[in-house]
Hints:
The chain has helices at 29-41, 52-61, 78-88, 106-115, 126-137; strands spanning 20-25, 44-49, 66-70, 96-100, 118-121. By secondary structure, it is of the alpha/beta class. Helix 2 (52-61) packs parallel to helix 3 (78-88).
Amino acid sequence: MKRKxxxxxxxxxxxxxxxxxxxxxxxxxxxxxxxQWILADENFLVDIAFDGEEALLKxxxxxxxxxxxxxxxxxxxxxxxxxxxxxxxxSLADRFIFITGYGTDPLIRNFLIEREVKxxxxxxxxxxxxxxxxxxLA
Length: 138
């Protein structure tokens, strides 16, 4: 009599589930933590940095699929992080999503438009952020 396969018998061993890694960079710790939980619920691995310098160290050490980054932060602004991260990992050049509450600031607006990067203005809908992330990963 042939027995019914049980989970873990080997039939499932060939199936792998690849999680995509996101680096979330924002000096607003409450927002960053909330977004980390939300994105983790969407099956993403989420690493947090609370300023640009910390994020740059993480970019050097890890390969991320997407970087979600605030623009105005202490120590190293988001636009500066973007330029340095591109040098370290050129594949990240088109994998940034900027989040900002300063969309009317001329310097920030010029950066976003000139670089043709994805961005969301705070406050943004969570569904919009998740959609943006999935679009970059497609």
